[in-house]
Amino acid sequence: MPQKGRLKTMARITKHVEERRQEIIDTAREMFIESGYEKTQVADISRRMNVASGLVYHYFKSKADILYAVIDELAENKIQDTKNALDKSNGTALERLGLILAPDPNLGLYGKLVNSRAFLKYCKEKTFTAISPVFCSLIEAGNEDGSWNCEYPRETAAFILQGIAGASEMLECPPNAEQKPKVFTDIIYRILDVPPRR
Fold first, then answer.
1. 123/153 Cα distance (integer angstroms)
2. Residue 178, Cα to own-chain centre: how many angstroms?
3. Residue range 15-60, CATH number
4. DSSP string, 68-132
5. How many CA atoms lie within 13 A of 154 on its CB side?
């Protein structure tokens, strides 16, 4: 029989630091996509996780920090998917270039996450910075297999990726939005001096 005046305590669920941090990122991503970044509060995230808001702030200083972690993870996943696709492909560098230029299925997610130019710019910069070494390696492979002859692979990779990042904003609205993949592909082929396709 419990003694008078004593409170029953619930067992605390303790999770490993990385596991808890990942749970916050996953929950925040879902909520940002569902309701938008602006409409989601840290209290909403903690409520869905069934934890105190203070726990979330133990891992992240602000809601913006959580968003940056979500974006970082999406970018890392994109890079890993691209690397895996390139590793599985046995084609020439020119054929494998199409894997990098393929539209990103998560691109629409960035717009759903937040409607802020600063965050969208961060998304693009994060993705292009991460993919730059992969793209540079592909350009070097193209030099070796004769797909093209590029004297400055690293600089060319940076130039192309920064150009795409900058030009993307100008081509967001129809009618240019649908042309974007073809336009970028044609420009990249010209920069790399790829022979005309038949």
1. 24
2. 21
3. 1.10.10.60
4. HHHHHHHHHHHHHHHHHHHHH--S-HHHHHHHHHSPPTTHHHHHHH---HHHHHHHHHHHHHHHH
5. 1
Provide the CATH topology of domain 72-191.
Tetracycline Repressor; domain 2 (1.10.357)
Question: Residues 6 or more apart from 103 whose CB is under 8 A from it?
Answer: 181
For residue 104, the model assigns a pLDDT of 64
Backbone angles phi, psi at 148, to 5 degrees: -165, 175
Is 130:139 a contact under the CB 8 Å cutoff? Answer: no
pTM value is: 0.73
For the stretch 68-71, contacts whose Cβ atoms lie closer than 8 Å and that sit 24 or more positions apart, written own/partner, are 68/122, 69/21, 69/25, 69/28, 70/25, 70/28, 70/29, 70/32, 70/113, 71/110, 71/113, 71/119, 71/122, 71/123, 71/126
Q: What is the pLDDT of residues 58-80, one digit of tens each?
A: 999 999 999 999 988 888 888 88
